[in-house]
């Protein structure tokens, strides 16, 4: 099969190179169509992405994406948000679990964040009300709330998960988060075999840092989902270990949760695990279960042995040496 590969900015090229090598070693038959996109491409060409990228994602339906940088406070809008809205990849699936050998506060975390990916404050509807006041619109629709709640329950059913918890702040944002929560409750009633509950976002943060094992599947509007994803990544050893998939009806874009890590870019220091695990999600979704499991086991055993680990978890190996170690395990 063919799939689009976007290396992206910063550490993106280094970790994409790791995936290219592992893909060859696994002999999956996946042929990458590589497209440039992001801030670096923008500064060299004036465009945000190479021509033909959107068409090919649309035609092939699958892409693996490295991180792309977004200027803060001004400049162009996020390519990630653009792609998610353009292809209506409405569900951002972010599994979080402890990995043996990765230093972290907890050892038995196993939860999944299902983040609504197309609306909320990420819709980008902002304007200056007057010269000293900015307005941003939080857009929550019943349609998108129902779609994401249904996705979470269907996912729980298929994966044998027991509980789905909705994340909100409906005590304060009674209309927007209220709609999200009420829609969730209606959908939950259709799935009596799955336990359902809800939690206010601030209380959730406290509960996550004190006992993350009490959660199973968390379904959240866009902004809360984004924030708790990094928090949860921190619970299991950091952003280097957090994969994700942006799932729509016709297109899925797999990517690491982390960004372009400009502080370590170009230094052979990046941990490619998050992108490798995102690629493993891609393999599973396309029937290559054995290769995906082989890859996961190889990554986990290199990490557990602790000889060739990257500096984010206290190791000294570079991206290339880590990749080589994974390859040898394969
Ligand atoms: P970041 O995730 O790039 O980095 C945060 C910290 O984690 C840094 O210290 C970095 O070195 C470390 N880190 C991240 N990934 C790592 C890895 N694979 N291995 C080792 N260490 C790693 O977040 P930051 O600095 O806030 O954002 C940088 C840029 O990335 C921004 O322009 C932002 O907009 C963009 N970004 C893009 C995302 C995407 O394309 N999906 C997601 C998040 C941020």
Put the structure in a nutshell.
The protein is α/β, with parallel strands linked by helices and about 325 residues long. The protein is built from 11 helices and 12 strands.
Strand content: 15-25%
Largest sheet: 10 strands, mixed
What string gives the helices and strands in order?
EHEHHEHEEEEHEHEHEHEEHHH
What global shape is seen?
globular
Cα-atom radius of gyration: 20 Å
Tally of strands = 12
Distinct small-molecule ligands in the complex: 1,4-dihydronicotinamide adenine dinucleotide
Overall mean confidence score, pLDDT: 96
| DSSP summary: helix tally | 11
Structure classification: alpha/beta
Terminal Cα span = 21 Å
- Strand adjacency order, main sheet: 2-1-3-12-11-4-5-10-8-9
Low-confidence stretches: none
The amount of helix comes to 40-55%
Protein topology:
Blueprint: E1 2-6, H1 12-26, E2 31-34, H2 39-45, H3 53-60, E3 62-65, H4 79-86, E4 91-97, E5 110-116, E6 126-130, E7 133-136, H5 142-159, E8 163-168, H6 176-188, E9 195-200, H7 201-210, E10 217-220, H8 222-235, E11 243-247, E12 252-256, H9 273-285, H10 289-305, H11 319-329
Parallel strand pairs: 1-2, 1-3, 3-12, 5-10, 8-9, 8-10
Antiparallel strand pairs: 4-5, 4-11, 6-7, 11-12
This protein binds 1,4-dihydronicotinamide adenine dinucleotide (NAI).
Overview of this protein structure:
Strand 8 (163-168), helix 6 and strand 9 (195-200) form a beta-alpha-beta unit. It is built from eleven helices and twelve strands. The chain starts with a strand and ends with a helix. The strands form two sheets. Strands 2-1-3-12-11-4-5-10-8-9 form a ten-stranded mixed β-sheet, sandwiched between helices. A two-stranded antiparallel sheet has the order 6-7. Helix content is 41%, strand content 19%. 1,4-dihydronicotinamide adenine dinucleotide (NAI) binds at residues 11, 67-70, 80, 239-240, 255, 258-264, 270-271, 274, 312.
């Amino acid at each position: 099969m063919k799939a689009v590969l976007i290396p992206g900015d910063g550490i993106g090229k280094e970790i994409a190179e790791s995936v290219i090598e592992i893909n060859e070693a696994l002999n999956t038959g996946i042929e990458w169509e590589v497209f440039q996109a992001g801030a670096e491409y923008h500064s060299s060409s004036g465009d945000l992405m190479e021509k033909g990228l959107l068409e090919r994602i649309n035609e092939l339906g699958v892409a693996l994406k490295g991180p792309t940088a977004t200027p803060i406070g001004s400049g162009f809008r996020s390519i990630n948000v653009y792609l998610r809205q353009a292809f209506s990849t409405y569900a951002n699936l972010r599994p979080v679990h402890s990995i043996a050998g990765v230093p972290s506060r907890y050892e038995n975390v196993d939860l999944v964040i299902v983040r609504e990916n197309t609306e909320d404050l990420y819709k980008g509807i902002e304007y200056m009300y007057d010269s000293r006041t900015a307005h941003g619109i939080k857009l929550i629709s019943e349609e998108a709330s129902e779609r994401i709640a249904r996705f979470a329950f269907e996912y729980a059913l298929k994966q044998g998960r027991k509980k789905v918890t909705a994340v909100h702040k409906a005590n304060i944002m009674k209309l927007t988060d209220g709609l999200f929560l009420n829609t969730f409750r209606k959908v939950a009633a259709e799935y009596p075999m799955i336990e359902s509950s809800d939690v206010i976002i601030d209380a959730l943060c406290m509960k996550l840092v004190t006992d993350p094992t009490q959660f199973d599947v968390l379904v959240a509007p866009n902004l809360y989902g984004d924030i708790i994803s990094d928090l949860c990544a921190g619970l299991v050893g950091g952003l280097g270990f957090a994969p994700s998939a942006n799932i729509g009806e016709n297109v899925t874009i797999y990517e690491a949760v982390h960004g372009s890590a400009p502080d370590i870019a170009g230094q052979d220091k990046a941990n490619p695990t998050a992108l490798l695990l995102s690629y493993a999600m891609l393999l599973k979704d396309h029937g290559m279960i054995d290769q995906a499991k082989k890859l996961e086991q190889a990554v986990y055993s290199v990490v557990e042995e602790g000889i060739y680990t990257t500096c984010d978890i206290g190791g000294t190996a570079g991206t290339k040496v880590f990749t080589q170690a994974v390859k040898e395990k394969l």
